[in-house]
Amino acid sequence: MIVTNKTENISALDYADGQIILINKDLNWTSFDVANKIKYLLTRRLKIKKIKVGHGGTLDPLATGLMIVCIGKETKNQINYQSDTKEYIAKITLGSTTPSYDMETEATICGSVENITKDQIESVLASTFTGKIMQRPPLYSAKFVNGKRAYELAREGKEHELEAQEITISAITLHSVALPEIEISVSCSKGTYIRSLANDLGKELGCGAYLSGLVRTASGKFRIEDAMTVQEFEQNFALTDNN
User: Fold this and answer.
1) Between the CA of residue 194 and those of 52, 77, 91, 137, what are the distances in Å?
2) How confident is the model at residue 12 (pLDDT cuts 50, 70, 90)?
3) 33 is catalytic
4) Nearby residues of 92 by Cβ (< 8 Å), 6 or more positions away
5) Topology (CATH level 3) of domain 86-219
6) 33, 60, 84, 200: which one is catalytic?
7) How far apart are alpha carbons 84 and 221 in whole angstroms?
8) Which CATH architecture has domain 2-83+221-242?
9) pTM (2 decimals)?
């Protein structure tokens, strides 16, 4: 396995033998967008028609941060990367909710935050959102319901329900409180929805909440500090082509 990071000048390696590219995903890109762009750049650069490209864990379009892009034979290991512990920094807005649990849909004010204290937030995080917990995925998620994506049903206004699933939150820390917004860091297992965590926190505090910003900072042993943007990856290819 070869890991390409932003400090390297990318050369014409045999990517088909297996490689990982660490990408810092931009806002509004889907995980498919990232994988598809990398695939396009590789096939053009290596002058080949086909190459396998996958990733080690989906990031929502409104989230940014670390994506593990698997190339060639390394795609057979992507399920292992998907199962790794993930780390995030999340901004959560208290006092309002949205149907999607994030900023994709319009917010509705539902409670006052005047009496919410830092100690209260820390107490709820520690008592309710640490260890093994049951979490219900957002209705606006990529989960399948009768062969259709849950978010497609939600956007069509069709009622549906998703079953709660067990997840593990190994660490959760409150970093700042500037009401109505707070910032937390989370270390969690595969299948954890930080959007659902934000919504559930709002319920526990009695004021409502939604996710207003999310950055994945780590996945397993890989960290965002070693990642590059898609634009940087493309620029490195262009520079190499000119050599």
Assistant:
1) 29, 25, 10, 9
2) very low
3) no
4) 181, 182, 183, 184, 198, 201, 202, 209, 210, 211, 212
5) Pseudouridine synthase (3.30.2350)
6) 60
7) 9
8) 2-Layer Sandwich (3.30)
9) 0.89
